UniProtKB/TrEMBL annotation:
PANTHER family xref list: TRANSCRIPTIONAL REGULATOR LSRR (PTHR34294:SF1), TRANSCRIPTIONAL REGULATOR-RELATED (PTHR34294)
GO MF annotation list: carbohydrate binding; DNA binding
Recorded family membership: Belongs to the SorC transcriptional regulatory family.
Keywords: DNA-binding, Transcription, Transcription regulation
Domain Sugar-binding: 65-314
Cited Gene3D superfamilies: 3.40.50.1360, Winged helix-like DNA-binding domain superfamily/Winged helix DNA-binding domain
Protein name: Transcriptional regulator with sigma factor-related N-terminal domain
InterPro entries: NagB/RpiA_transferase-like, SorC_transcr_regulators, Sugar-bd_dom_put, WH-like_DNA-bd_sf
UniProt xrefs under SUPFAM superfamilies: NagB/RpiA/CoA transferase-like
Entry superkingdom: Bacteria
């Protein structure tokens, strides 16, 4: 028997034994009188001829009930991604990124200037975003200086470059550390024409994509930009969260701390003026920081997993 004379009946038999009866290909070969290597080819031909039709029930990747509840309680535009239990942190971020990417890509395509921050969940999101068409007039703008001298793949400068390449837009960088040694140095940096130009563009953004940090889970502590004594200072100042390198209290107001005048980033007041401010969050450990950011007008949209959304709803009951 050669592959050129396989008829529909033979292909259906092979497909039935494999897909419905679950027989191994070696056994199917004996029943159909072909070698095991030819069974795989017969199954492929069955699909090509339309004899095998694989159907999967529609899967809703978003929890609409939680999205509506968050909207009612917090005045929030929410994207709540369904996730299975027990995922590792990395897998949780990848799940959020995969299913939220089409939504956020649509928001980007409706914008003209996008302020971009960094973060691991943000990286998972950006990696999955695919524009429906180029948008050459789109401007992506780095919203915070570099955390240290060796930016990682999840830093704003790398994510902004990637997004600009995909959309065919432009990318404006803040070529400076995020936290400078002292307020005077920071003041001089803000006086530079190059920095002023980028900050002016950030002030005109109509969409911001930001991560939300906490004192216990901050990239600045992880990469030793801030140390234990800095953490103690921020705790004493009442800090519960961090966005764009700016630490804020339980009401979303920037804390008076030695770092307040040393950060090169979009200010929290300027962030408040952006029409759509999207927090991208994985997990429930940032609940207080997210709620404070919402209360302070720093976020009005949120991408989060079910576990994180559940913690927010529980806290607001």
């Amino acid at each position: 028997m050669t592959t050129s004379i396989y008829n529909d009946e033979q292909l259906i038999l092979a497909a039935r034994l494999y897909f419905l009866d679950g027989l191994p290909q070696a056994q199917i070969g004996k029943l159909v009188n072909v070698s095991q290597s030819k069974v795989s080819r017969m199954l492929a031909m069955a699909r090509e001829r339309g004899l095998v039709r694989i159907t999967v029930p529609e899967y809703d990747s978003r929890n609409g009930d939680m999205e509506e509840e968050l909207g009612r309680r917090l005045g929030l535009e929410a994207v709540v991604i369904r996730t299975v239990g027990g995922l590792r942190a990395e897998d949780l971020r990848q799940t959020i990124g995969y299913f939220a990417a089409p939504v956020i890509a649509g928001w980007i395509e409706a914008a003209s200037r996008v302020a971009v921050a960094g973060g691991r969940t943000m990286q998972a999101l950006v990696d999955q975003m695919k524009p429906s068409q180029p948008k050459h007039e789109l401007a992506l703008i780095q919203a915070m200086g570099n955390i240290d001298s060796s930016p990682g793949l999840y830093d704003a400068v790398e994510l902004g470059r990637l997004m600009a390449r995909r959309w065919g837009g432009t990318f404006l960088t803040l070529s400076t550390p995020a936290i400078l040694p002292d307020p005077e140095t920071c003041r001089r940096f803000f006086g530079l024409e190059q920095i002023q130009g980028v900050m002016n563009q950030l002030g005109q953004a109509d969409l911001a994509l930001v991560g939300v940090g906490t004192l216990a889970n901050s990239v600045f502590l992880e990469r030793n930009v801030l140390g234990p004594s800095d953490l103690a200072t921020l705790q004493a100042a009442g800090a519960v969260g961090e966005i764009l390198g700016r630490f804020y209290d339980a009401h979303g107001n920037e804390c008076a701390s030695p770092f307040q005048q040393r950060v090169v980033s979009l200010s929290l007041n300027e962030l408040r003026r952006i029409p759509r401010k999207v927090g991208v969050v994985a997990g429930a450990d940032r609940t207080q920081a997210v709620l404070a950011a919402i209360e302070g007008g720093l976020l009005n949209a949120l991408v989060i997993n079910e576990g994180g959304a559940s913690a927010l709803l529980k806290e607001t009951r």
